[in-house]
Amino acid sequence: QVQLMESGGGSVQAGGSLRLSCTASGSIFNIDHMGWYRQGSGMQRELVASITSYGKKNYADSVKGRFTISRDNAENTMFLKMDSLKPEDAAVYYCNAAVQIRYHDVLYTYWGRGTQVIVSS
Q1: Where are the beta strands (DSSP E) in the chain?
Q2: Residue-level pLDDT at 95
Q3: Does residue 1 surpass a pLDDT of 90?
Q4: Is residue 4 classed exposed, middle or buried when 0-12, 13-18 and 19+ CB atoms within 10 A define those classes?
Q5: What is the mean pLDDT of residues 77-101?
Q6: How far is 2 from 112, CA to CA, in rounded Å?
Q7: What are 59's strand-pairing partners?
Q8: What are the beta bridge partners of residue 98?
Q9: Cβ 117 vs Cβ 21: under 8 Å
């Protein structure tokens, strides 16, 4: 079994910063690509940023230049550093990962339960 757990959400003022973490645990052989998604109130879930196993990064245009995604493969952990937060960044942020389970050859997609980010104006 594999579990993803997000942490680091909270309430900040516009212009502030937060650092989200996502740690995978369980019978993990390898984690391939990972990503952060968010879903604001009344909005569709959208991809915020993604990172491959070797560190190639992609960002949504709305967060480019403000957010930084990274990962620590040794700790099965992914981070999202969010700077210059705007009210429109308020959402529940979800961790996503493609995981190869120990002794299995295929990749499975897992989701965390989410961590809430509130940005006040």
Answers
A1: 2-7, 10-13, 18-26, 28-39, 46-51, 57-59, 67-72, 77-82, 91-101, 107-111, 115-120
A2: 98
A3: no
A4: buried
A5: 97
A6: 10
A7: 49
A8: 109
A9: no
**47-60 pLDDT, tens per residue?**
999 999 999 999 99
Stretch 55-83: mean pLDDT, rounded?
97
DSSP state of 87: G
Tell me: pLDDT of 105 over 90.
no
Which tokens is 16 given?
């502030």
Hey, what are 6's tokens?
């997000």
Could you tell me the pLDDT band of residue 104, with boundaries at 50, 70 and 90?
Answer: confident
Cα separation, 70 vs 55, whole angstroms? 7
Q: CA 79: distance to chain centroid?
A: 7
Sheet with 77-82: list strands edge to edge.
2-7, 18-26, 77-82, 67-72
* 23 close to 73: Cβ distance less than 8 angstroms: no
Which residue's structure tokens are 């050859």?
A: 105
In which residue are the tokens 């070797």 written? 54
